Amino acid sequence: MLLEVNNLVKEFEKGKPVVDKVSFTLKEDEIFALLGPSGCGKTTTLRLIAGFETPGEGTVKLRGRLLSDTQIRVAPQKRGIGFVFQDYALFPHMTALDNVAFGLNELPKHKRKVFAEEVLCRTGMGDFKGRNPSELSGGQQQRVALARAIAPKPQLVLLDEPFSNLDAMLRDSTRKEVRSILKKAGMSAILVTHDQEEALSFADRIAVMNDGKIEQIGTPEEVYYKPKTKFVAQFLGRTNLFEVNAGGGNEIETSIGPIKLDCNACGRVVCSIRPEHLTIEKPNGASPDNIGLIIGREFKGHDITYHVLYKGERYIVHTDNRILFNPDDKVVLRALEPAVVLQDPLN
Ligand code: ATP
Known about the structure:
Layout: E1 3-13, E2 16-26, E3 31-35, H1 42-50, E4 57-62, E5 65-68, E6 81-84, H2 96-102, H3 109-122, H4 138-150, E7 156-160, H5 168-185, E8 188-193, H6 196-202, E9 205-210, E10 213-218, H7 220-225, H8 230-235, E11 240-247, E12 251-254, E13 257-260, E14 266-273, E15 278-281, E16 292-299, E17 303-310, E18 313-320, E19 330-335, E20 340-341
Parallel strand pairs: 3-8, 3-9, 6-7, 7-8
Antiparallel strand pairs: 1-2, 1-4, 4-5, 9-10, 11-14, 12-13, 14-20, 15-19, 16-17, 16-19, 17-18
Helix pairs in contact: 2-3, 2-4, 3-4, 4-5
Residues 12, 18, 36, 38-44, 194 line the site of adenosine-5'-triphosphate.
């Protein structure tokens, strides 16, 4: 195991933990994301791993070496961890090359610049080695910051919202490049982000955080298609939630008709079904009790979102753009996949 984070707790104000018993592990070569809304404790968790904060409880171990507990705190620069900050934090008066060479004090002086240039080339910045940060675009600075973080060959790279200053196009391409650079270098990384699409496309596994706690850890597919809680279901994208009485089997009655569940369930339960797991059809021959009404439509080019009202309940459906209906059309909905039974306690 590369990293073991065990029961980390951090309070800035007594009795109000901003990181609350956070535990997870990271394998070699794995890219992990901490995903959650602003203020949920992601950056603080990253800072505890980097050694910029001391935990009130819990431990951090890297390849079995204890880095942090309530007594021990190995200095950040001695942890073998690279860090890319949100604002890149490059030295403004130094060239890209000097920024990268700066942290290479393990190498003899004459080799530092040669190796720094090699790493800059790997991140596509070889031609810009002589420029200062103010002469580089956001995406270019980001790649220099990444080169600086990976040049000392750390065991782990921590990335704190590194793409948030880039525009949408650049964000997408830089994200892909950074992922491929990390994978080629065989380096593990933890990305902090509040952007669900970013976490889903960048990470091998995701921890979804809410209010200082991890609610679920899983692959992008697991957290998206098999959310464990209402929070995870809703934070990862749009979803249809409904509270129903389950009879012990794996099927429930809903206003759109019977829907299969992903497991057997009994009693009052909350279920989630993603909008793309519903489809919309003409009501040919359906009984009037099972017919819904389109009350809204969002055309997005490659797909369409419909809002459908069924006996006072609203459903969201994503379809491809060949399925065309209009507001006020009468329709029926059909589930293409089972609904997921959530584990939230019922109020
Ligand atoms: P964002 O996405 O906005 O960066 P985050 O999930 O990374 O949010 P943190 O930066 O970890 O959240 O902050 C968690 C909570 O801890 C917030 O309420 C924040 O105000 C508080 N906090 C963070 N650092 C300190 C500090 N040094 N002193 C006091 N409170 C702090």
